[in-house]
Amino acid sequence: MxxxxxxxxxxxQIKARIKRCLYNSFVCxxxxxxxxxxxxxxxxxxxxxxxxxxxxxxxxxxxxxxxGVLYFAPKGKISNAIDxxxxxxxxQGWDDVHIVLASLFVGxxxxxxxxxxxxxxxxxxGNRLSPQGHRLEALIGLAVVIALIVLAVFGLPPASWLLxxxxxxxxxxxxx
Length: 176
Hints:
Elements: H1 3-38, H2 48-72, H3 76-81, H4 91-115, H5 117-125, H6 135-153, H7 159-173
């Protein structure tokens, strides 16, 4: 089979797929419009993938807020002495919320990885179209995480700067 006829055949297949997709989209859109006019409500199917993505995103955002509050919160004794509260929660309340949200985030993250394991594997190991995969990006991400852990453990900048600022808020800022 010549290169031109193979190209033409592939082009015709792609054109047919696009035509089917457009037709299906139009039929679906038309059905939704007629249901909207009749007052009927069409409920879409809940998918585990979408739920895991939104679970990771929303639990992360909530954890970011609780972590931010705790980062600037005074030390336990000081917070009790000045009756420190944010949005009706004291320091212990924010600690509890943060731990629960962190557990929820870990759970959603593990579920997300399990659902997308083939994609993660393909990104690291590569595939036919991209034999190298994204090994370099994976190694860079891993190196950044390990480096920040080591910097925090040994008290080196820039991790130490964040920890020093946190200590300032815990001990000095709130004690007056």
